[in-house]
């Protein structure tokens, strides 16, 4: 079946540091890939998405590129802020035959 | 993308009782999903609910424990039956919004005492 593997957290960074959260997936066919963010006490919000190979999703300074050859969708941000502290979920799915599949989530803690 | 209203937002329930969670979507959607998120954990899919057919349950979840209704294309309910403290969790509904991925309700935080 389909699966998503994320790096374990928590990831602890100082403000303005560079962020990478690794995500790899296993799926048949060509799913869409997503990053969701969950701020403390809130629901999940879509952060960015990519629907086909080599697509780059971006939002709020975050980026991720759909790499079919390495089955990866790593999340990056050049300079994190304290307000980015949250749990980030990598996911695949969307469209007919795909059951949405989420990674375990990676907690990000950004210190001033 | 769709907007989902989920309620209740939280509840504290006695063991052995049942709680029904409602999700109302502001547009018609084919597929709705119900998840459980235990503290510090990822989302676990409970079932997929399509209008006009019985829900499809994932391994480890059964209809007797988590009955789901889907009477129309904008509404669904999940009931957590005969609750025990192990059912304490956040329950989330979600819909697929075409190429936009999935939109989530704000969640129901359930505590069973």
Can you describe this structure?
The complex is a heterodimer of chains A (112) and B (113). Chain A is mainly beta and 112 residues long. Chain A contains no helices and 12 strands. The radius of gyration of chain A is 13 Å and the shape is globular. Chain B is 0% helix and 52% strand. Chain B is built from no helices and 11 strands. In chain B, the strands form 2 sheets. In chain B, strands 2, 4, 5, 6, 9, 10 and 11 form a 7-stranded mixed β-sheet that branches.
Q: How helix-rich are the residues of chain A, as a percent range?
A: under 10%
Class by SSE composition of chain A: mainly beta
**First-last Cα distance of chain A:** 41 Å
Question: Whole-number average pLDDT of chain A?
Answer: 91
The total count of strands of chain A amounts to 12
Q: What structural class is derived from the secondary structure elements of chain B?
A: mainly beta
Query: Taking all residues together, what is the mean pLDDT of chain B?
Result: 92
Radius of gyration of chain B over all CA atoms, rounded? 13 Å
Number of helices of chain B: 0
What distance lies between the first and last C-alpha atoms of chain B, to the nearest angstrom?
37 Å
Question: Low-confidence stretches of chain A at least 5 residues in length (pLDDT < 50)?
Answer: none
Q: Show unreliable segments of chain B.
A: none
How would you summarize this macromolecular structure in one to three sentences?
The complex is a heterodimer of chains A (112) and B (113). By secondary structure, chain A is mainly beta.
